Amino acid sequence: MNTMAAIKTYNKVRIESSVAAADPHQLILMLFQGALLAIVNAKNAMLRKDIPTKGAAISQAILIIDDGLKASLNKDVGGELAYNLAALYDYMTNRLLTANLKNDEIALDEVARLLNDLKGAWESIRPDTTSTLPASPIIAQQQALPAVKPQTVNVQSTISTSLQSATVRHAMSAYGGV
Question: What number of other Cβ atoms are within 10 A of residue 177's Cβ?
């Protein structure tokens, strides 16, 4: 059994599930966390003198900052703040490029510190999710409905043998022949 392949598959599914269940505020928080993790991985690779891993981790951090954090800015609504954040993200990207080219741990630490500060500020403006008001009129209607006693239903499996075989083949290939 290929343990590393199984772990990677599990992590991918876990992350995809987290993204699917996250609200927009949580998604941005996940981007901050992903960029910070990539920077930690880059610094560890730098210390081990593992150039390919360092480059991949820094590239991942840059991708998250540019295509995630910066791309999510709404400059029409955010105004000057959004433009300032975009400039800060550009600065971080340039510092990460410098860190990659010159093996500059200080540049990695600087970007991590900036991201941590922004992450902390983002966490502090978390919308109140404990409101007693319903999120929509539909939810209010559902809350007003009387509770229905669940009924037990006996359902026979309708999965065909060929579908089961295809599922098993797919599972085996995804986990490296487990």
Answer: 9
* Structure confidence by residue, pLDDT tens digits, 118-158: 999 999 987 765 444 444 444 444 444 444 444 443 333 33
pTM over 0.70: no
Q: Is the separation of the CB atoms in 69 and 32 below 8 Å?
A: yes
Radius of gyration of the chain (CA): 23
76, containing H or E segment: helix 75-102
CA–CA dist 114, 121 (Å, integer): 11
What is the CA 75 to chain-centroid distance, rounded?
Answer: 23
Please state which of the four CATH numbers 1.20.120.340, 1.20.1440.230, 3.40.50.970, 2.30.30.280 is assigned to the domain occupying 22-125. 1.20.120.340
Residues 61, 38 contacting (CB under 8 angstroms): yes
> Which is nearest to 71 in space by CA: 61, 63, 59?
63
